[in-house]
């Protein structure tokens, strides 16, 4: 039996390309990453464009391994999703966000918002809202300080389940944001059936807004229609002063991007909040 197992492995490894092999190795280390404390969080400031103050931050997962060093979320998050590990890691992100928020809350404005990314898989078990409710109770973080970012595909995949869970979350008082808006297939009228509060314009539109008429028109249309649907708009990926000027002129209220700050550790976030960012 031992022998045939080995033959099997040889058969597969001969067939497997280098990328698939690396993927498998990454997956193996991902399975141990939580226990080995290899995950940590960075926070990217979000700027309130009326006041210029940092009104919140997006929480972004980071993974550091001894073997590969820093691995990009665009590589490991899809793997977490495929393997279902995102459920465990996603709960860790929520827990750790609450812990760090509460630890720093004395030095943060009352209405400071931490925006956490959620994957579709985290909606599946049907107990997400209860998990978050308990977490808020146990940590002492207020629901108004938590924003949850979800993607369009999550709403499209299992609309019934999504509406149900979003209603429960909304009842808790957390803010619900739709991420990467414009990259999927949903329309604003479709979104109307979900209890959403915030819409994040994908950075692919923002990046071309000052030199591509179509992107400028799309951003303007999103901003105009959001207003009538009572959705707050966040522009992501703002990198230049010209993009910022365009967005402000169109009455966009919130923005994040390298122009203001890259995602940073909590200590740096606290320093930035202290200093404020001049517009
Ligand atoms: P996202 O949710 O769209 O996050 C924004 C990404 O844009 C982040 O990449 C951020 O570092 C990057 N970014 C911010 N400002 C700028 C800018 O001005 N220019 C450019 N070029 N990029 C900017 P990051 O941190 O590599 O994360 C990639 C993706 O991984 C995220 O995209 C999100 O989909 C996923 N992700 C990260 N953390 C989590 C998490 O805790 N849970 C889940 N489910 N997904 C996560
Ligand atoms: Ca996001
Ligand atoms: Ca995004
Ligand atoms: Ca374009």
From TrEMBL:
Superkingdom of source: Bacteria
Domain called EAL: residue spans: 23-277
Coiled coil: none
Name this protein carries in UniProt: cyclic-guanylate-specific phosphodiesterase
């Amino acid at each position: 039996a031992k022998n045939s197992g080995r033959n099997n492995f040889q058969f597969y490894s001969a067939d497997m390309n280098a990328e698939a092999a690396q993927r498998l190795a990454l997956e193996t280390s991902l399975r141990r990453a939580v226990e080995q404390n290899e995950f940590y969080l960075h926070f990217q400031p979000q700027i309130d464009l009326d006041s210029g103050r940092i009104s919140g931050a997006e929480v972004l997962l980071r993974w550091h391994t001894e073997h590969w060093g820093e691995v990009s979320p665009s590589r490991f998050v899809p793997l977490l999703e495929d393997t279902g590990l995102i459920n465990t890691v996603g709960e860790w992100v929520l827990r750790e966000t609450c812990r760090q928020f509460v630890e720093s809350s004395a030095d943060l404005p009352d209405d400071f918002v931490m925006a956490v990314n959620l994957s579709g898989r985290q909606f599946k078990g049907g107990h997400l809202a209860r998990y978050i409710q308990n977490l808020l109770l146990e940590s002492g973080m207020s629901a108004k300080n938590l924003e949850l970012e979800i993607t369009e595909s999550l709403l499209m995949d299992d609309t019934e389940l999504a509406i149900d869970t979003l209603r429960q979350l909304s009842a808790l008082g957390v803010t619900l944001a739709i991420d990467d808006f414009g990259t999927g297939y949903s329309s604003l009228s479709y979104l109307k059936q979900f209890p959403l509060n915030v819409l994040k314009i994908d950075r692919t539109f923002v990046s071309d807004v000052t030199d591509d008429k179509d992107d400028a028109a799309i951003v303007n249309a999103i901003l105009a229609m959001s207003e009538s649907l009572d959705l707050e708009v966040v522009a992501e990926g703002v990198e230049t002063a010209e993009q910022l000027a365009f967005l402000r002129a169109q009455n966009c209220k919130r923005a994040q991007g390298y122009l203001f700050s890259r995602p940073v550790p909590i200590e740096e976030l606290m320093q930035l909040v202290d200093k404020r960012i001049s517009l």
